[in-house]
Amino acid sequence: MAKPGRDFFKGKEVLFVGYSAKNNQFSKMVYQAFMDNGMKVYPLNNKADSSYDIKVYNKLADLPKIPENAYVLLNRENAKSIVGTLAKTGVKRVLFQNKKNVDADILQECQKQGMETAVACPMMIYGKGMHKIHAFFAGVR
Amino acid sequence: MTAYPLIRTKWSNEHIMAALFAVLVLYLLPQWLDKPGELFGFAVLLLFGLLIDVAANMFRYHKPVCAVSAAVTTAMLELLTPGVPLWGRLLGVSFALIIGKHIWGGTGKNPFNPAAAGLFFMSILFVVEFPPFYAAVLLVPAMLFSLPFAGFRPFAAGGMILGMLAAMLTSGELSIINMLSYGVVFWGCLVITDPATVTPDPLIGLMSGLLAGFLPLYLSGTVWALALGILAVNTVSAVTADNRGKAISLARLSFKGRKPFHYSIDEVKLIDAVGEETGYNGEMPELSSDQIMSRIRENNVFGFGGAAYSVYDKIMAVMSCGSKAGHLVVNGVECDPGLIHDKWILKRFPNEILHGIDIISKIMSFESIVLAVKDGEICHVPESVKLHKVADYYPVGAEKTLIKEVLGKEIPYGAFPAEQGILVMNVQTVLAVYEAVYLNRKADTRFLTAADLRNKKVQVVRVRLGAKIHETVEAIYPGQGYVFAGGGIMQAWLAEDEEVIDKKVNFLAVGRFPAYKESQLCSKCGLCRRNCPEGLKVNDIAKLVDEGKLKETEKLHAEKCIGCGSCSYVCLAGRNLSKRTLSAREFLRQKAVRFCNVK
């Protein structure tokens, strides 16, 4: 599986698919890491309601625009089901959180649909401190 | 999106427990000075306790969780079981942490104090010396540092101390030496004040504490009896937990010395994004009360305090309430620690505000006119207006809280002050009334506070309604950062890209997200409830919201939440409670609307 670097995402916008319905700390941490690196984040969750700290979109159609980059934080089943939709809406690069969220079939499907893929926690790319140490050992540039 | 505070207390459960552990070490010092070898035994015991706690938390939460509470339990057992061998203490710590705490669900979910459970267990198996303390002068600092912990459960603490003193008095043993060696302050301030296992109810706390202090000491004078007394208090607290209706508020949330930024109101300069003349030198035109009212209506004067009501409608509501003479309360309190513009307006436009009050007085007569402020020196008023200096706490500026503070009248939930002839207006609203009537100016601009939370800077800004929030903030504080907007620093939300400044926006800011830790370890300290101006059982509401049981929050009256954010600010578990309570409130309000529509 490809290990991405900071240059994996092109441009300054990213779609965050699966921003936690429980608004957990991890989702917010990743959101903040993207934002701190000057990226505009569009969080998406089909269970989105008004209780989030940030604006979370309910469906892709609600987004003011679809970014070319997507970060997917879904389980394998859900990740598999959204790949086709992402490709159709113009997403060109997909970053999956870790090996638990993706398998070879999903990655192959992405490539078939013309999307670049990578598997790594974005905190290794955009985070600081311990995340950088994690990135070093994981081989993420 | 719901609003939430951008600032919060620096204290957490872990800080409190660490402080408690430090006090316990002070208690242990005389023992260690006498027998330094015991220090090694304690180190082994401590390591063992921490390992159990870390392992249990890893099993439950699948991530490391601070184990300082286990250190406290371990230190308590070390202190209260002199003469017990190390293997016996290891057994006692295991019992305390596994049976006394983790079997119930971990920190905050245990009905029994783990240390008391462990102590009771050990006192059955071993001979535990009593009294446990050396009556040494070295204990005095530990006792003094113990006193603040009584604040968590003051009634239970007071009861236990009184009970122990009464037992000593009736058995003729009351002396300073005995008070030290029996550990009256220790039991009263450190053991029976565990918020997770002892009721906050004043009466139940006092009575159960009194009995737990008196009976064991009077009848038995042993450690097992005292431990059993604490466990009995825990049982009573658990049984009465759902029925407790009262919580006496000993604390009012004050931001004195903890303001998010420091400034001198005299040095704050206006950033005028409107670009129009800001001088106020108009002459009062000859107008009848009807003409004044029509100017107020035509110029769309609204409530600048955050509610954005129509001032015309509000005055009409007061006039039609049937009250012969009402009260006018001008709200210059500005209790939100992030807002400064009302103070600035009072300082900069005192005459215009007094003219505004005159105008409103021409429309209808008032029994009293009160200008409520925090700083009595901020402006001078004529005899017809009473300057009322209110106590500096949050949210004293909330309409009903202010009425209670100023007029001593309680407005029940669901009722409106206007129905009782009380007209409350923010100072900026009064200024807008002045502008609308004197200058025939539309209320389409507003003053607000713009803050840079990273660099602790703050400005007063005058903007036109409809201006884009991001563009306005970027012009004042250029550079990257999260842009927030809201009613104040205690009620802000992340502004969306195209969001504009509307009538409800009083505050703009750039900064980082507030550091809500969202710990699952609620210690039931009750600070959220004690600081809730509506007295809501906030932690119970938050629990229901987390479980998705929004309908059930109706029983706890979540609809009464005023969204002040006090609960989120004080929560020692770092949980954003106001966000949860507000989502429950919104759910209940929407449910009520649906019900009305169906009817």
Instruction: Assign the CATH class of the largest domain in chain B.
Output: Alpha Beta
Q: How many E strands of chain B?
A: 10
Main sheet: strands, sense, barrel of chain B = 6 strands, mixed
CATH architecture of the largest domain in chain B: 3-Layer(aba) Sandwich
The CATH class of chain A: Alpha Beta
Structure report:
The complex is a heterodimer of chains A (about 140) and B (about 600). Chain A is of the alpha/beta class. Chain A has a single domain, classed as NAD(P)-binding Rossmann-like Domain (Rossmann fold), CATH 3.40.50. Chain A has five helices and five strands, in the order E-H-E-E-H-E-H-E-H-H. In chain A, strands 2-1-3-4-5 form a five-stranded parallel β-sheet, sandwiched between helices. In chain A, strand 1 (about 15), helix 1 and strand 2 (about 40-45) form a beta-alpha-beta unit. In chain A, helix 2 (about 75-90) runs parallel beside helix 3 (about 105-110). The longest helix of chain A is centred in the middle third of the chain and has 13 residues, at about 75-90. The radius of gyration of chain A is 14 Å and the shape is globular. The mean pLDDT of chain A is about 85. Chain B has about 600 residues and is α/β, with parallel strands linked by helices. Chain B has three domains: about 15-240, no CATH class; about 250-515, NADH-ubiquinone oxidoreductase 51kDa subunit (Rossmann fold); about 525-599, no CATH class. Helices cover about 45% and strands about 10% of the residues of chain B. Chain B contains 22 helices and ten strands. Chain B has helices spanning about 15-35, 40-60, 70-80, 85-100, 115-125, 140-145, 155-170, 175-180, 185-190, 200-220, 225-240, 290-300, 310-320, 340-350, 350-365, 400-405, 425-440, 470-475, 525-530, 540-545, 565-570, 575-599, and strands at about 270, 325-330, 365-375, 385-390, 420-425, 445-450, 455-465, 480-490, 490-495, 505-510. A six-stranded mixed β-sheet of chain B has the order 1-7-6-10-8-9, with helices on both faces. Chain B has a four-stranded parallel β-sheet with strand order 4-3-2-5. In chain B, strand 8 and strand 9 (about 490-495) form a beta hairpin. The chains are: A alpha/beta (about 140), B alpha/beta (about 600). The interface of A and B includes residues 38, 49 and 53 of A.
